[in-house]
Amino acid sequence: MTDLTPLPSPEDIRRLHERYAPSPQAFDSVHGHCVIVWRIAEQLLDALDALGTPAPVDRDLVRAGCLVHDIGVYRLYGADGGFDGAHYIRHGLLGHEILAAEGLPEALCRFCSHHTGVGLTKDDVTRQNLPLPPADYLAETPEERLVMYADKFHSKSTPPKFLTPDAYTAAVRRFGDAKAEAFTLLRRTFGDPDVHSLSAAHGHRLVQSP
Q: Which helix (H) or strand (E) covers residue 183, if one does?
């Protein structure tokens, strides 16, 4: 991770969002979500520190990863303001392309392309006929795994919402027991966030069951 010194600051990343966002509404949705994901990750790390079992992660890298992970969503907006939800699965790769074109290192680009669900395998891509190059898109480092995990508790839906761990577990089980088990392992590693307080603080509804 020494190749990521210095990391882009939150202000640098905000300016990047502002450059790529096609509208103020898109900026508020995507950048706002990324900020919330960082707050979730920060809360999880603080809780682990308080327990005396800190996670072996680079906090600055986690923050940067949270703040950039969804930047590819902007590429799904058309000139008319319409949103290509049918190709949402591609937003990670699109974000990876944006960051790479900006000259940012591969380790930061990977937060975009390796955070979808609880990880996409080559088999997932081919079996579901997903519009992605066949490959494994799996979070590998502790930082990547934490960003992927924190992302699961907030959605940019209209209106935006928070999800409890049990609600996400039920939702991801639709893709197979192995996916639910992968999420359970992440819960054991990083703990559960206090989504009730986050929901109240941001005024977003809380989904407690599927």
A: helix 177-190
- Residue 120: phi, psi to the nearest 5? -105, 130
Q: Is 141 helix (H, G, I), strand (E, B) or coil?
A: coil
Which of 113, 19, 112, 7 is CA-nearest to residue 64? 7
Q: What is the DSSP string of 43-100?
A: HHHHHHHHTT---S--HHHHHHHHHHTTGGGGGGB-TTS-B-GGGGGGHHHHHHHHHH
**pLDDT tens digits, one per residue of 114-138:** 999 999 999 999 999 999 999 999 9
Residue 94 CA to its chain's centroid (Å): 14
Domains of the chain: 2-152 (1.10.3210)
pLDDT of 2: 43
Q: Pick the closest to residue 183 from 143, 153, 208 (CA basis).
A: 153
Structural tokens at position 197: 């307080």
Per-residue pLDDT tens over the stretch 151-160: 999 999 999 9
- Do residues 110 and 96 lie in contact, with contact meaning Cβ atoms separated by under 8 Å? yes
User: Of 81, 93, 110, which Cα lies nearest the Cα of 21?
Assistant: 81
Instruction: Tell which residue, 16, 103, 12, 115, has the closest CA to residue 66.
Output: 115
